[in-house]
Write a structure and sequence with these properties.
By secondary structure, this protein is an alpha+beta fold. The chain is built from 13 helices and ten strands.
């Protein structure tokens, strides 16, 4: 029994006596733990950022719009100005009409295509719009517009530091079938999708999406109507459901109220879409967890190969220990404990290294912060310790099974 109390001291002494071997093993575990914790932080950060982004587009908002697959509806819309009272009565919240068209926005030598979204100042009561500069449209504004952040970046470059004038007050030229001429920029709407900041170039299907569905992209220009709504094609409504009403029940009631329009009008709650997105993200991150498992498997294989060679050089030492009375289980326990202690030390070093790696990744490559959850860190530690036991188990068993007589006589 007394031997087991001495085992940690014996293991530490063995680690110190072999600095090169211990350093190689410690470096391997440090790299494995750093990679594992960083990957977990990236995946957790994705989950948190997507959830935050989804909530930022309005979880209590219902979209009502014409069918995106029938272009005739964009000219002869089945939605009427009188539908506003019906929809608002069901949702119990603010409701605004929208009219969409595509066009080109120019500023000097730069230009970009954008969605022209004609709406009302009350849109800020429906959507959780955040402005990073200026203000939203007000009643009476003429030849004034508000740009989404993505459009402003394309026209005026990256946003400067806080407090430095960027786009507000500048003039842009709008060119479209229904909107033309110079417009003064009065505000910039913050992009709610932070996670896509460095992935915009990967969205190859953006231009292929129907224009009515592109209102969810937040890459447009907001304008006020230049004529009454009863003389304008209303392509959709956005309504915010009151806090005391159920979003999905209101969705069903609006759909029933507009059922006479058939398949020409779509009604869907953003909360339902958010649920599907989050389910897909959860599934994707679960699949992506394979990455850190692969890292640990590779580390285990590497440590196993090192241990096989390293333990063989200690056969004489182990044989002497056996002759002095140490049992096989004592030998196995010592070798396993040596690797576990080395892995624990590597884990403590890996924590700040992973935090530094996360900071660099966020600064240079990612658009969202890494999230290091305690459960994930504990999982990485436990998985690493299990891997260290597996990597040392076979060499330790071999070493403990060696006949000390053969070893000391030079036959092993």
């Amino acid at each position: 029994m007394g031997y087991w109390f001495l085992l940690p001291r014996v293991a530490l002494r063995a680690i110190v006596r072999r600095p090169l071997q211990s350093a190689v093993v410690a470096f391997g575990w440090t790299a494995a733990f750093t990679a594992t914790i960083t990957i977990m932080g990236i995946l957790a950060g994705v989950r948190y950022q997507v959830e935050a982004d989804m909530q930022a587009i309005g979880a209590r908002v219902i979209n009502i719009h014409v069918s995106p697959f029938n272009l005739v509806q964009l000219i002869n819309s089945p939605l009427r100005a009188s539908d506003r009272e019906v929809i608002a009565g069901i949702s119990g919240g603010p409701t605004v009409p929208i009219h969409v068209s595509l066009g080109v926005v120019r500023s000097g030598t730069k230009q970009t295509t954008a969605l022209f979204l004609v709406t009302e100042p009350e849109l800020t009561n429906v959507l959780p719009i955040r402005l990073i500069e200026g203000r939203f449209l007000k009643a009476g504004d003429r030849q004034a517009c508000v740009l989404d952040e993505a459009v402003a970046v394309r026209l005026f470059g990256e946003r400067p530091r806080e407090g430095t004038p960027w786009a507000v007050g500048k003039t842009v030229t709008l060119s479209g079938l229904e909107v033309r001429g110079p417009y003064r920029v009065v505000g910039i709407v913050k992009d709610p999708f932070r996670i896509r900041e460095r992935m915009r170039e990967m969205d190859f299907a953006a231009t292929a999406r129907p224009r009515i569905l592109r209102i969810m992209e937040y890459e447009g220009v907001y304008l006020l109507p230049n004529q009454p709504w009863h003389r304008t094609a209303i392509h959709g409504y956005l309504t915010r459901v009151a806090a005391d009403r159920d979003v999905f029940q209101c969705e069903r009631q609006v759909r029933e109220a507009l059922a006479a329009r058939g398949a020409y009008v779509w009604v869907w709650a953003r909360a339902r879409w958010i649920e599907r997105v989050m389910t897909a993200v959860e599934l994707s991150t679960e699949v992506a967890n394979i990455a850190w498992l692969v890292v640990l498997v590779i580390a285990t294989a590497m440590i196993l190969s090192i241990a096989l060679v390293a333990v063989r050089t200690r056969y004489v030492e182990i044989a002497v220990r056996r002759v002095e009375g140490a049992r096989r289980v004592h030998i196995v326990g010592q070798l396993l404990l040596e690797n576990v202690i080395t892995a624990l030390g590597a884990f403590l070093v890996a924590l700040p290294v992973a935090a530094l790696a996360g900071w660099v990744l966020e600064l240079r490559y990612l658009s969202w912060p890494l999230v290091f959850e305690p459960d994930d860190v504990l999982t990485a530690l436990l998985a690493g310790l299990v891997a260290s036991l597996v990597a040392t188990g076979l060499p330790a068993h071999r070493a403990a099974s060696v006949d000390p007589v053969h070893v000391l006589s030079g036959r092993e």
